[in-house]
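Re: [ENG-882] Designed sequences occasionally contain unexpected residues at chain ends

Forwarding the minimal case from QA. Structure tokens:
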């Protein structure tokens, strides 16, 4: 018992140190967003800027169309997340509870796509979408993310734990597979939905390269790409960049705070299976 307590104290201390190392850069960025550039670039500057100013936040909209790009990113990220969750749940249900020839082989092929680096497929995808005339459209941003191999795996592991007898009882009552999926499977998978929602929203919110390649119209661009407006030819507006970035991470924090408990439970369920 004494050794276990000592191990717990050491583990807690390590986690505390890791938390501090992770959080400090974000705290410094947020504090620096209230500082003029002359204070940020000082080598001997303290943690708290003197003088403090809100000019960086006030001037964001004037430097680039922040609100429009923020709205674009929010709509695209939410739409891709919702579609990916639904398709992953459907395919997870199919691979988990339906019996058909080649099921395991097909599932193995889906899982093997997770081992292919995304950089390998970006050029073929770009040429394909360009030939389809989808460049400069929101469709080109949403379409590549509607199927998630990771999401399919997560839902398959979660749905496997749902009793087959429950599904058979529903079928005896005359419920179709579609009714069973919407009335039984989805409500019982809320933890998995929350976990995948956080992962997918974060991946889509911070996506830079694909929107940069596909969108040339500044009014249709996403926020992650729009932040490069603070990088000028002769220098970087660090104060404005930090202010815009601080606002950009707010949706991610809100999503995580809402789904925090379900996220932890969903990951635990998937890893346990």
């Amino acid at each position: 018992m004494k050794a276990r307590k000592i191990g717990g104290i050491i583990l807690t201390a390590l986690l505390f140190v890791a938390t501090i190392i992770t959080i400090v850069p974000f705290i410094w960025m947020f504090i620096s967003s209230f500082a003029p550039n002359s204070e940020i670039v000082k080598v001997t500057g303290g943690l708290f800027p003197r003088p403090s100013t809100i000019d960086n936040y006030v001037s964001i909209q004037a430097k680039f169309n922040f609100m429009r790009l923020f709205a674009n990113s929010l709509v695209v990220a939410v739409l891709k997340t919702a579609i990916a969750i639904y398709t992953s749940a459907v395919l997870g249900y199919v691979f988990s509870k339906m019996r058909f020839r080649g099921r395991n082989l097909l599932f193995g092929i889906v899982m093997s796509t997770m081992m292919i680096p995304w950089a390998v497929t970006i050029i073929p995808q770009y040429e394909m979408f360009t030939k389809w005339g989808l460049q400069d459209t929101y469709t080109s941003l949403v379409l590549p993310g509607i199927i998630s191999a990771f999401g399919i795996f997560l839902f398959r592991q979660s749905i496997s734990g749902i009793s087959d007898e429950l599904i058979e009882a529903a079928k005896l009552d005359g419920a179709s597979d579609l009714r069973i999926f919407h009335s039984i499977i989805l409500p019982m998978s809320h933890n998995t939905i929350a976990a995948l929602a956080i992962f997918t929203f974060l991946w889509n919110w911070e996506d830079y390269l694909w929107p940069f390649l596909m969108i040339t119209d500044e009014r249709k661009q996403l926020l992650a790409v729009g932040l490069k407006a603070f990088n000028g030819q002769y220098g970087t507006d660090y104060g404005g960049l930090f202010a815009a970035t601080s606002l950009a991470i707010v949706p991610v924090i809100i999503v995580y705070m809402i789904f925090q408990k379900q996220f932890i439970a969903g990951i635990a369920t998937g890893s346990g299976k």
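QA comment: On inspection the terminal residues look reasonable. DSSP finds 16 helices and no strands in the chain. Proposing we downgrade this to a documentation issue.
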